[in-house]
Specification:
Blueprint: E1 4-7, E2 14-15, H1 17-35, H2 42-55, H3 59-74, H4 80-94, E3 99-100, H5 104-111, E4 117-122, H6 125-135, E5 143-147, H7 152-161, E6 169-173, H8 176-185, E7 189-192, E8 214-215, H9 222-232
Parallel strand pairs: 1-4, 1-6, 4-5, 6-7, 7-8
Antiparallel strand pairs: 2-3
């Protein structure tokens, strides 16, 4: 039985990976100017992963990681103009239009009449709050929860605050590490909708036992799956 549904935000409700990819491409071009074309994207990725413990997730962390990577790879030779370019690139990411993914609004419109809906997002509070407003999806949700990390403790704390029993809670998201594993661990249910190029996933993860979660191809399949679950109950 499902009584409450929560959705991940980035790359589940709206597209964010495209903006990061475009910014990373601009950073790559800049670094190749200093390194005679020998730059590899893994340098920035390694800095991002290393900085999660300091800055968390999101655009600001990405921007600081670009600057740090540039300083390290150039031995401090990067010009003030190019540092300013990276700062402005980060600001552009923060102000980028929010592109709601296909079928999302129709699904939310259908489900919001039958279920209380919430968003559980990971990252910077201000960044996620402004994207939530710019998305235009606020009318479908009871609340927005933003956490620095999605782990069993964070999910348990949210469910206690809203007086939701884990067994009737469903999480929908595109990240096994953030949206699926922790929810299953506390006794909840999960729907996994893969998104290509998910950021900052660990390289190795153990698969959960089969049957503990369902994988759908796209958001449009969610209402039908929920209806089938209800009829089978």
């Amino acid at each position: 039985m499902v009584e409450y549904i929560a959705f991940d935000a980035d790359n589940t409700l709206w597209r964010s990976e495209t903006c990061f990819s475009e910014a990373q491409a601009q950073f790559r071009v800049l670094m190749q100017q200093y390194l005679n074309g020998s730059y590899d994207d893994r340098y920035l990725k390694e800095t991002e992963l290393r900085n999660i413990q300091h800055y968390g997730y999101g655009v600001k962390s990405f921007g600081l990681s670009m600057i740090e990577t540039a300083l390290e790879l150039t031995g401090g030779r990067i010009s003030p103009e190019h540092i300013r370019f990276l700062v402005n690139l980060t600001k552009e990411l923060l102000a980028a239009p929010v592109e709601v993914l296909p079928e999302v609004e129709a699904v939310l419109d259908e489900l919001s009449g039958d279920y209380p809906l919430m968003v559980i997002a990971k990252g910077d509070l201000l960044d996620q709050e402004t994207k939530f407003v710019r998305s235009g999806l606020g009318e479908y949700f009871r609340c927005l929860e933003v956490v620095s990390e999605k782990d069993p403790f964070s999910y348990s704390r949210i469910l206690r605050r809203h007086r939701i029993r884990p067994e009737v809670f469903l999480m929908v998201g595109n990240s096994l590490r953030s949206d699926i594993w922790p929810v299953l661990e506390i006794g909840g249910q999960a729907v996994y909708i893969p998104s290509p190029g998910a950021r900052n996933e660990p390289l190795q993860m153990d698969e959960p036992k089969p049957g503990l979660y369902v994988q759908l191809e796209h958001m449009g399949q969610l209402p039908e799956w929920l209806e089938a679950r209800l009829l089978a109950a």
